[in-house]
Structures are given as structure tokens and as C-alpha cells.
Write a structure and sequence with these properties.
Layout (H helix, E strand, L loop, with lengths): L18 H13 L5 E3 L2 E3 L15 H24 L4 H8 L3 H4 L1 H23 L2 H20 L4 H13 L4 H11 L6 H28 L3 H21 L5 H14 L5 E2 L1 H4 L6 H17 L1 H28 L6 H6 L2 H28 L13 H4 L2 H12 L10 H29 L3 H29 L5 H17 L1 H14 L2 H31 L1
Parallel strand pairs: 2-3
Antiparallel strand pairs: 1-2
Helix pairs in contact: 1-23, 2-8, 2-9, 2-10, 5-6, 5-7, 5-8, 5-13, 5-20, 6-7, 6-10, 8-9, 9-14, 9-16, 9-19, 13-14, 13-20, 14-19, 14-20, 14-21, 16-19, 18-19, 18-21, 19-20, 20-21
């Protein structure tokens, strides 16, 4: 259900089709030997019966055109989360409240966003990705208007909360990835989309610095509305429906119109669809896995802590860079090293993605264990506490002869680790939990947004009130120490993840299903190849 690999549910169990496999499928269709499921007299289309109509068969340029729009949507969503921080001072003045109280609407948006991703998740599977995303974007844009025109503080709190609940986030954007790429071919697309998930908040901080210094408060919200409206129009005109079950329903209707009256789509014969009980199970499962699965719990806490650092920096950059006399827009530009760190990390993952992808293609999916997805993370994860220590103790200012670029080097290292943590956690979770990856990554995304919301409140007091000589340095030191404790388990899980997964009922079940699926597929492929040979 959520975030960066969310909707790999049943699609994760479908093996990639090779060139030879597609030739066999076309021959099957020519011979009329499709293995179609029957319910009474109804022939229910399965994915392989209309594979050329699904997102998997889109040309590469079309897939990446859609993915770039999903990238921009994710940027817009995270910009909404972070841009508000630059209006805190003016909001406090406008409504005669403290700056700490003015940060509460940022908390309500992020915490509501954590739940919103889960609440929207089932509907993109039932109704399709396109209408779900459009409705979400429309509602988010609508709630920007009362925020901009808010006559009182309460309106701001309520409308920010509703904006967070209206945000579908990764529950749709990552679902689109699963619709267009088979599991063993998704890594490049996921790595690219993760860049937007971590980078959107930083884009908001950079833009927000200029708005804070040069524009009235209302433009904090008008900017969010303009960006949101722009990406909604792009999605409206250039992104088709990609959900396989919806496309199979459409193909069945087309075939019936052409005379084949017994063909039906999967949703057309599924009269029960999702009951309230089913929806409840879907909503509860991510939280169940979060508290009962050690792998999910650690990855979620690690990813959540790393993401919350961005919102900590939103409040901590002011007192740190203020020592060098930075203005608001210059403080915003100080976030650009984080972007540089993200891009460096993204590029660093490409060689390992290519290597493991080629290995799977040569020797099969089993040749790469889920723990291999943590291989590169081991080399970069400790950059997080190292970067935090550098930021903490180089941020004591020019009075001690330290240049302003020094703390920026620290934040660039944090950026490298932050991207790597999210990319690896999504990749590992998908590989380890397969059909339950939606729920497992749901816990991950929940913790990212929830801890970020909490960080919006504690960050400013923490950077101001710890000690009297170096409050910002001691605040950064505390974060660095916490980072050590949450990053070190990466080495343990890399070495012992397989043992841990064997004790997990979810991971053990998916491993058994994969083995059965592989045996079944191998048997069918042998029979199909013999059939084609006999027909020839």
C-alpha cells in the first residue's frame, strides 16, 4: 500500500516475460490454447491473455514519460509538506500566536499524510490508479485555498489536516511502477522515483527561502496550489490508466463488442470486490507488520529517522547559518548540498543495480538473495552519523575560524545516506516480502511521515535550549548518537536476514508461494514449448 514499492502485491509473483516467452504467448493465442479461467460459461481474462494491452508492454519512452510525471507529482506532495515551515514566523505574527504553536499545522499535515497514504491505498486497486490520483490531487489543491485565505488559526490547522488526509502519495505513484515493470526489472524506475520522494522536501526548502524573504505569506500556499495544479493537469492529459485489472476489464468489453460474448474482465466477475472487513484488514496489516516483523520495524525506524532529519534541518538551519549572517533565501540555498548528496547516492546505486539485474537474468531470481539489496548500503550508511557530527561541530560558526561550507559538507554526507537508506529499505522489503510488500512498505512510509511531523515540533526548541555555549552543536551530537544506534543494525541484517525471515510467517509464506509458482511456471513452459513444437 504505500510509498516507493508499495503495490507489488500479486504482481510480484509473476515472472518476467522474456523475448522467447512473448513469442510462445503469441503462438498460444494463434493456436487458441490460452489457459483461461472459467466461471460457468464465462472466460475471465488473465494478464497473459492480453499482455500487449497492459502497462508492461508500453514502449520504454512511454513508461519513462509516465514515470517523470509521477516524479513531479511526488515532488509536489513533499513540497507541500516542507514549504509551510518558511511561513511559520509570518503565521505567528498574523494570528498573534507563538512560533511553536504556528508549527502545529505542519505537524497535522504530516501525521495526517502518514494515515492518508494508508487510507487511499485500497482504492487505487479497486477503482484504478488514474481516478484515485486525480481525486487526491484535486482535494489537496482545494484545501490550499482556505489555507491561503484562512481568517483564523483553527482554519489553518483543520485544512492542513484535511490536506494531509487527502494525499495519496506513494500508494499510487509506486503502484504505477509495479503496473509497468515486472519485479526483476523495476529497480531503475524505483531508484529514480525515490529521488523525488527524498528530494521534494528539499525543493520546498529552497523555494521557501525566497518566498519567506521576498513574498507575502499567502504565496506560501498559492505556490503549493500552482505546482499542484500544474502536475494535476499533466497527469490528467498525459498519464493513462495503468492498473492491470482495469485494463483487462476494458479489453474484455472491447472483445465482447467485437462478438466474443463470453469474455469478461476480473472485476466484472468479482461481485464481492472489497468488503468493509477486507478494507479493515488492508489498513491494519501495515501496522501489524510494523510491530511484529523485526525487519520491517528496523527499516521503518531507520527510514523514518532519516527522513525526519530534513524537517529537523528546516528548523535548525536558521540558528546555525545565522552565525554567518545568512538571509532567509540564503538559508534555503544551503539545502542544495542535500540535493547534491541525493544525486550522488542515486548515481552510486546504478552499477550495483545493473550487476544484480544481469545476475538474475543469467541465473534466475533466486540467484540474488533479498539481503544482497543491502550490499551497497553497508558502505554508505555510516555517512549519516558522520555527516551529523560534522554538521554539529562545524556549525559553531565563523568565530572559531570555520567557513560556512564546512557544515554543508556534513549535510551532503547526510543526503547520501538518506537516499541510500530509503532506496535500500524499499528494495529489500519488496524482495523479502513479495506479495506483502505493500503492507511492509506501508509501515515504512507511515514512520517517515509520522516522525517527520513530530520533528516539526521538537526541532526548534532542541536547537535553542540544549546547553548554553554550543546548543546547536549538542543538538546535532544527540542526533548523531541516535543515528549510530539506528544504522548499525544494517550490518546485522545483512548477515542474518535469511535466518530472521525464516521465523517470519509473512516472509516464509511468500517464499513457499514463490517456489510453488516457479515450479508451476516451469511445468507450463515445458508443456507450452512442446505444444508449439508439435504444432510446427
Amino acid at each position: 500500500m504505500k510509498p516507493l514499492a508499495s503495490y507489488l502485491d500479486k504482481q510480484h509473483l509473476i515472472h518476467p516475460f522474456s523475448h522467447k516467452g512473448r513469442e510462445i504467448l503469441r503462438e498460444q493465442q494463434r493456436l487458441g490454447s490460452l489457459d483461461e479461467q472459467r466461471e460457468g460459461e464465462k472466460k475471465v481474462l488473465k494478464e497473459r491473455d492480453a499482455y500487449d494491452k497492459l502497462g508492461y508492454s508500453y514502449p520504454t519512452w512511454r513508461k519513462w514519460q509516465i514515470l517523470i510525471i509521477m516524479f513531479l507529482i511526488q515532488i509536489s506532495i513533499n513540497l507541500n509538506a516542507s514549504l509551510y515551515a518558511n511561513g511559520v514566523g509570518k503565521i505567528a505574527t498574523k494570528f498573534s500566536i507563538s512560533e511553536q504553536a504556528a508549527r502545529v499545522p505542519q505537524l497535522t499535515f504530516l501525521v495526517a499524510y502518514a494515515f492518508g497514504c494508508e487510507l487511499w491505498a485500497p482504492w487505487s486497486e479497486e477503482l484504478g490508479r488514474w481516478p484515485t490520483q486525480q481525486l487526491s490531487l484535486l482535494l489537496v489543491n482545494i484545501w490550499q485555498i482556505p489555507c491561503a485565505l484562512a481568517p483564523n488559526y483553527a482554519t489553518l490547522i483543520v485544512c492542513r489536516l484535511l490536506g494531509g488526509l487527502s494525499t495519496a502519495g506513494g500508494s499510487v505513484t509506486l503502484g504505477v511502477v509495479a503496473d509497468m515493470w515486472q519485479p526483476d526489472d523495476q529497480e531503475y524506475a524505483i531508484a529514480f522515483l525515490v529521488l523525488s520522494s527524498v528530494g521534494g522536501s528539499v525543493v520546498g526548502a529552497v523555494i521557501g527561502g525566497f518566498l519567506e524573504q521576498f513574498a507575502p505569506l499567502i504565496w506560501i500556499f498559492w505556490t503549493q496550489l500552482i505546482v499542484g495544479g500544474f502536475v494535476q493537469l499533466l497527469h490528467l492529459f498525459f498519464v493513462p490508466e495503468t492498473r492491470a485489472t482495469i485494463l483487462l476489464d476494458r479489453e474484455a468489453k472491447r472483445r465482447r463488442a467485437e462478438g466474443d460474448k463470453n469474455v469478461f474482465g476480473p472485476n466484472e466477475v468479482n461481485t464481492e470486490r472489497l468488503s468493509p472487513k477486507d478494507v479493515g484488514k488492508i489498513w491494519i496489516r501495515p501496522f501489524h507488520m510494523l510491530f511484529t516483523e523485526p525487519i520491517v520495524a528496523w527499516l521503518s525506524c531507520l527510514s523514518g529517522f532519516s527522513d525526519s532529519l530534513i524537517f529537523t534541518f528546516l528548523q535548525g538551519y536558521g540558528p546555525v547559518y545565522g552565525k554567518w549572517g545568512f538571509s532567509a533565501y540564503q538559508i534555503g540555498l544551503a539545502f542544495t548540498p542535500l540535493v547534491a548528496g541525493y544525486v550522488i547516492a542515486w548515481l552510486s546505486f546504478l552499477p550495483s543495480i545493473h550487476y544484480f539485474r544481469q545476475k538474475r537474468r543469467r541465473h534466475g531470481s533466486k540467484s540474488v538473495s533479498p539481503e544482497e539489496r543491502l550490499w551497497w548500503l553497508r558502505f554508505v550508511i555510516l555517512l549519516e552519523p558522520i555527516g551529523l557530527f560534522i554538521f554539529a561541530w562545524t556549525g559553531i560558526g565563523p568565530r572559531y575560524g570555520i567557513p560556512w561550507i564546512a557544515p554543508m559538507i556534513g549535510t551532503a554526507l547526510v543526503g547520501i545516506a538518506n537516499y541510500s537508506i530509503y532506496q535500500s529499505s524499499i528494495d529489500y522489503t519488496v524482495a523479502a516480502y513479495g506479495a506483502y510488500a505493500a503492507s511492509a512498505t506501508g509501515g515504512n512510509d507511515f514512520m517517515r511521515d509520522f516522525l517527520s511531523g513530530i520533528a516539526a515540533l521538537y526541532s526548534a526548541p532542541m536547537y535553542s535550549n540544549i546547553g548554553t555555549t554550543f546548543p546547536q552543536a549538542w543538538a546535532g551530537t544527540i542526533l548523531a548518537i541516535v543515528a549510530i544506534f539506528v544504522t548499525l543494525p544494517a550490518f546485522y541484517f545483512y548477515a542474518n536476514g535469511e535466518k530472521i525471515r525464516k521465523n517470519s510467517k509473512f516472509a516464509a509464506k511468500i517464499a513457499q508461494e514463490r517456489e510453488e509458482e516457479e515450479n508451476d511456471t516451469n511445468g507450463k513452459n515445458k508443456g507450452t514449448a512442446q505444444h508449439v513444437e508439435d504444432a510446427a
